[in-house]
Design goal:
single chain, 887 residues, alpha/beta, 4-stranded antiparallel β-sheet, 33 helices, 14 strands, 63% helix, 9% strand
């Protein structure tokens, strides 16, 4: 339908044909969300997963949508054949989607150029990244942004006033429902099974289906219009057809401006709330916390709420006069629901569980149940506010958009709302969360929505009593939450006997330090413990530093990835031969927790060692662009299932690391044993082996640790035992390792598990973790959170155990040392068996295994420490009956 003077006649399509457009927009919505997820992922591979890079990518994406809806929305009112134009948009979008990966190949070169000029100047670097991303996404996102106003123009009928808001609301709901499907498919199926490139092809195919369907629909409608014209049943599109219908606030420019401002603010509030909810809900989840599936589930629930709300809005459009009053009421209700979501986050979401994900008989981890729990908990927090947010857009459309300029009106409203969506995450990350925190941020957003709603309600309501009552409800709800929210401890969950000694809700993550009832401190990022002061975590940090320092011939420069408790950095600095220790850290809040972890870092950070430098950047981006080279690169992450950790275990990252190594250098990687099926575990090691065929696996057996260390040599794999002994004679290094009974060169060497031909045969296969096929990110959360994977994966490595003596450089070991090494290696299976029994709480069996190992190696002080059972002693002192019984 056109309002152009050249097109004096318009047709009203039958209801059946009218409905055929909705499946097309459903497919388009699914494709759009798939594109957004995939493009964001691809650009983050280049720019890194740092806050500034992610913000630049998402802001550029939303800005393109706003531009398209604004520019092409007004033009759509002059279209003679809007369905054909819509088909053209979808076809071009399919082409752009398929071609964009080719264009993305230029981004590393541009980003490297910017990195070389501005380096750590985040403001200029982020501005450059935003510009590059915006230009790359300009065409496809502009096309996406135009689809809603163009199709709105195509579907407007000359009917009652409520039909405009109903039609646009239905389109918005259908498109968002498609986005729900797209988010679910991309997050739960396509990327993990088929990879990035094939997922893009699926999205392009959906665009092609929408384009072909729109062409067919256009042809059918035009044919019917010609038949009606020939039969004399023309419907003149005169002034009566285009006049404003009763109930529309014609000429109310003040109200229009107010509604547009509210649409801008609501877009910002909805996206800012999404950021805060995603940060807060991780504290409520138990088994899929911080995984890719948890974030996909939250996105699905968020979009589903918008879709249902948009559909429900149509049921109310005929029951409210004027519609702007209902819009104001909905904004107030959004504010109140945001307050309720605060209460649920703190006191209710943890209880919204369907059932335990562990099978009651077999204890097998049931992944569908775990996903169901995350969906249920997300819905418990998000369902009501997102449903109300979904109602807002069609109500705003009905309130201010003229039927004479549907495309332009909807395009302007959608553009304004999308600009708000651009602003929202920026405000949340850089202003709201740092200043007000997660809880305070939601309260602030709620107050904004309630104030706007009351302002619009006051403008359109004749009853002062209703306004006063509504305002009183808002004030009471806000007051109750302000008085009862646990401001000090925030959202961090603690067990009985534990207490939070440090808590900081920063732009990048929520960081806390919790002291347990044994007196050890653990630092957690978004509720996940990453480092601490207990012996097991100390082993993790010290071994990452000292083991590679004992193996490299002439180490001068080191890069350690992740600050954690600062333990690894401290241990590196004990080696006086080092000239530079760089630490790549993505989250500044982690360093502010260092004073609460001095048992691990010994307060070195406050002493300002001139050799030490912190690089606040995503290490993947840093290694891709920097010209610095290192003798050692140590990657220390939490489990692969958390956040984007698996990005540091793909072929591309390992290649970046290898390219930054100096001759004779090594890469050391912390690799979890748990949370991985045997196939996923082998896949992770095989990926490392592809880049570093000269590799070995070490297991620090002084504690029942849950990880291994992968050492990859740039050149020949060879161990100079004389050099190891000489470096361990340094008093500072020896004292640091003595805390863990690892200051013996033979004990250190005995932690070798396997390398060489047996390991190569074990890792045979042609499947790797890559940017295109991120198997580990999607596969690792699906397998177990108990001890069974740790034991199974370690047992599989023990089955291919070989001696380290085959890789000891000739003439660097004495016969006595080799004899001791043989005894320590023979004791290793007993130690690992003891660890397995200890993890299963079979204390007597563990004691027998440890004593059997001690009989072989009576000088092993770590075994003597294990037989002290210090945790049981501490537990007994604290009054644990079970600890007394076991002792």
């Amino acid at each position: 339908m056109s309002s152009s003077p050249k097109n004096r006649f318009a047709f009203r399509p039958s209801r059946g044909l009218h409905l055929l457009a909705y499946p097309l927009f459903f497919a388009s919505g699914a494709a759009g969300l798939i594109y957004e997820i995939v493009w964001t992922r691809q650009l983050i591979y280049v720019f890194g997963s740092g806050l500034y890079a992610v913000t630049a990518v998402l802001s550029a994406f939303m800005a393109g949508l706003a531009l398209g809806s604004f520019l092409l929305g007004a033009a759509s009112d002059r279209l003679r054949r809007p369905f054909r134009f819509y088909a053209l948009l979808e076809a071009l979008l399919a082409c752009a989607g398929l071609l964009l990966p080719l264009a993305l190949r230029v981004t590393p070169a541009v980003d490297r150029w910017a990195y070389g000029i501005w380096g750590q100047n985040f403001a200029l670097l982020t501005a450059c990244r935003f510009a590059v991303t915006f230009l790359l996404l300009l065409v496809p996102t502009t096309l996406m942004g135009a689809t809603l106003p163009v199709l709105s123009r195509a579907l407007v009928e000359r009917a009652r006033t409520r039909a405009l808001g109903l039609s646009v609301g239905a389109l918005y709901a259908i498109n968002t429902a498609g986005a729900v499907l797209g988010a679910f498919l991309a997050g739960f199926r396509l990327l993990g099974r088929y990879g990035v490139e094939r997922t893009i092809t699926v999205a392009a195919a959906l665009n092609v289906i929408a384009a072909l369907g729109a062409l067919v629909l256009s042809a059918v409608l035009e044919s019917r219009a010609r038949r009606e014209a020939e039969g004399g049943r023309r419907i003149e599109a005169g002034a009566a057809g285009n006049a404003e219908q009763p109930g529309f606030p014609a000429g109310s420019e003040g109200l229009t401006s107010l509604v547009l401002a509210a649409a801008l603010a609501t877009g910002a509030v909805s996206m800012a709330a999404q950021v805060i909810w995603s940060r807060g809900l991780v504290f409520c989840f138990e088994y899929l916390k911080n995984t890719t599936y948890a974030f996909s589930a939250m996105l699905v629930v968020f979009l589903a709420g918008l879709a249902v709300g948009s559909a429900l809005a149509g049921l109310l459009l005929g029951r409210a006069s004027p519609p702007a009053r209902l819009y104001g009421l909905v904004l107030v209700l959004i504010g109140i629901s945001l307050l309720s979501s605060v209460a649920v986050l703190h006191w209710g979401a943890g209880e919204a569980l369907l059932s335990s994900p562990f099978h009651p008989a077999t204890q097998e981890f049931r992944w569908p149940v775990a996903v169901g729990n995350v969906l249920a908990q997300s819905a418990f927090v998000l369902a009501v506010p997102t449903l109300l947010m979904g109602m807002a857009f069609p109500l705003a459309t009905q309130a201010i958009v003229s039927r004479r300029a549907v495309g332009g009106g909807v395009g302007r409203l959608y553009a304004v709302n999308t600009v708000g969506c651009v602003i929202g995450p920026l405000l949340a990350c850089f202003l709201i969360i740092p200043r007000a925190g997660l809880t305070g941020g939601l309260l602030l957003l709620a107050a904004v929505e309630m104030a706007l709603g009351l302002l619009i309600f006051r403008r359109t309501s004749d009853s002062k009593t209703s306004l006063a009552g509504l305002a009183l409800v808002c004030v009471l709800a806000l007051g109750v939450l302000l008085a009862s929210a646990p401001w000090r401890s925030g959202l961090q969950q603690v067990n009985p006997g534990e207490r939070v000694v440090y808590y900081d809700e920063g732009p990048m993550a929520t960081v806390s330090v919790v002291k347990n009832n044994f007196g050890y401190n653990t630092i957690s990022i978004d509720g996940v413990g990453v480092a601490g002061t207990d012996p097991l975590l100390q082993t993790d940090q010290k071994s990452l530093a000292h083991l590679p320092m004992l193996l490299v011939a002439n180490p001068r420069k080191v890069l350690t990835v992740g600050f954690g408790s600062g333990g690894a950095s401290y241990s590196y600095l004990l080696h006086k031969r080092l000239e530079r220790v760089d630490c790549a850290e993505i989250c500044p809040e982690v360093l502010r927790a260092a004073p609460y972890l001095t048992a691990a870092n010994h307060g070195f950070f406050a002493k300002r060692d001139p050799r030490y430098r912190v690089i606040f950047d995503d290490v993947r981006s840093y290694l891709r662009h920097t010209q610095e080279t290192y003798d050692i690169i140590a990657t220390d992450c939490t489990d692969l299932r958390y956040k984007s950790n698996a990005n540091l275990y793909d072929v591309e990252y390992f290649r970046f690391s290898r390219e930054r190594l100096r001759p004779g250098g090594v890469v050391v990687v912390w690799m979890p044993l748990g949370g991985l099926s045997l196939d996923m575990f082998k896949l992770a090691l095989r990926t490392f082996h592809r880049v570093f065929p000269e590799m070995a696996v070490f297991f620090m057996d002084n504690e029942p640790t849950h990880y291994i260390l992968l050492i990859g040599w740039r050149d020949k794999m060879e161990i100079d035992l004389a050099r190891v002994s000489q470096r361990l004679s340094d008093p500072a290094v020896k004292a640091d390792l003595a805390e863990l009974s690892l200051d013996d060169p033979i004990k250190i060497l005995s932690t070798w598990i396997t390398g060489g031909a047996p390991l190569a045969a074990y890792l045979a296969g042609d499947t790797y973790n890559t940017e295109n096929f991120p198997y580990l990110e999607f596969g690792s959360p699906r397998y177990g959170y108990a001890d069974r994977p740790i034991l199974d994966n370690l047992a599989s490595l023990l089955a291919i155990h070989n001696s380290a003596r085959g890789f000891v450089a000739a003439g660097t070991a004495t016969p006595e040392q080799l004899a001791r090494l043989d005894r320590y290696e023979r004791a290793l299976p007993n130690i690992i068996q003891g660890h397995a029994e200890y993890r299963s709480l079979q204390i007597e069996a563990a004691t027998r295994s440890y004593m059997a190992a001690l009989a072989i190696t009576p000088g092993d002080r770590s075994l003597q420490r294990l037989l002290d059972f210090r945790e049981l002693v501490l537990g007994a002192r604290l009054g644990s009956p079970w600890s007394w019984l076991m002792l």
